[in-house]
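Bench notes, afternoon.
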Amino acid sequence: METGFTLRKTYMNDTPLAHVEKWKDTESDSVGFLAVQSWRNGAAGGGTRICGFDSDDDACTTAINLAKTMELKFRVAGPDIGGAKSVIRYVPEPESVTSAAGYDPKPHKEGVLRRWLTSIWPSLKDRYGTGGDLGVDDATIIRLFGEVSRTIEPGSAAFTDPQQGIVYGFYRDHHEERLKSLRSGVPQPVEEVGLRLAAEAPKILDLITGFGVAEATRRFYELRGQDLSGKRVLVEGFGNVGAAAAYFLAEAGARICGVITLDPDERRGDKDDDVPKRRLCVTSDSGLDVKDLIRARSGTNLGSGERLDAGDQSFWDTPADLFIPAAASGTIDEARLRRLLKAGVGLISPGANVPFVSTDVEEAADSELSVIPDFIANCGMARAYAHFMERWSDSDTVSRWPSLTADVETIIGDALSRIHSPHGPPTGYLERAYRHYIGQTLGPDR
C-alpha cells in the first residue's frame, strides 16, 4: 500500500489539472491565474488571493497547489465538487504615486480585482464559485462580483453571488432559493458572541473559518483525552481567521501567549508591496486579552507591539503548546519548525492553506508532532457555503449561527475521527489523512 505522503507527491506533482488560464491586466502589470483541479459533478470552488509574488511562476504554482488542496477540502466539507483557486500577482502603482500624501491604494487594487472577475466571468457564471482569501475579504468579493455581474448581465437578478457557479453547475433545482440563502446567511451578523468589530456585531463570514480552526483544535484534544484549559497558543496572522481562532480558543480556556503579524506602519514600495520586511508581535506568558487586540487592530494586523526585523526569530521561541499559522502559505520552514518544537509546541492547527514551505518540512513535522490537515482545520467557510446552499429552506429571520456551528462541529469531528489513532502516538495525522482523502480522490485502485 502506498503511504499517504507518496500519494500526496503523486497527486501534487503528477495528477493533471482540468483547467489553467493566465490573465494579464490591461491597466497595470498585475497577472492572474485560475487553476481548476477538476470540474467534478459540473462545478469547482476556491477563493481569490491577491498579493505580491516574486514571479508569475510563483503565483501560478500557488494557484495550482491551492486548487489541489481545495479538491481535498470539498471531500471533507462538501459539496461534492472540484477544487479551484484564483491567484493574482498584484503589482501596485509606482512609488511616485503611492508615496503621495493621502494616497489610498484601495481603488487601484479593487480595479485589478474587478477586471479579473470580468475576465473569468464565463466560469463564474455557471460552474466556478469563489470568495475571499489572502489580500481580499469575502465582503469585498461579494460587492465586486455584484458590480461585475450587473455590468455584464444588466437587468438580470439571477447573478448576484460569487458562489452562483456552484449553485448552477452542481445543483439541479431551487437555484434562486439557494442563492437567496447564501445572500442572507453568509453576511448575517452574529449576536451570540461577545465580540464587536468596529462597534458592530461580526458577521458569519468574519468568524466561521476561525471558529472551525478552534473547533478542530478542541476536538483534537478531546480525542486524546484532554481539553483546551490552560493550553498556550501562538498565532501567526490576525486577520479574520487568526483573530477569530484566537478568540474562540481563549473562550474555551486556552491562553493566547503570542501573536505576530506584518507591521502595518512600514511604508510599502512599488515592489513586494504586500510583503514588508518588518513584523509586529505581542507576547505574554500569562495570556493576552484577545478582545483588546482585536479592537486595536490596524486592518488585519496588530495595531501595536514589538517591532521585529525579518531575521529576528525571538517570537518563535515563546513557550507554547500549540501553533496556529493563519497568515499565508509556506511560512513554516525547517528553522521555524525546530524553534517551535524547542518551545514546546506539540500541535499545529492551520488557519492558512499549505502552511509548510515544502513537503520535506511537512513530513518532518508530521513525524515529530501533531499536525491537523489544513483542509480539515480551516474548512469552516467551505462548509458554510455548502450549509447555506443545502439548507435553503431555513428561515432567514432567525440566527443561522447555531445550526451552522453545530454543522461545522460535526463535519470536523467526523473528519478527525477518521484519521485519529486512539492507541498510537500523537503523530501521523497528515499521513493518515492523505492516505484516506487523496486515495478517495484518485480512486479505489490507490
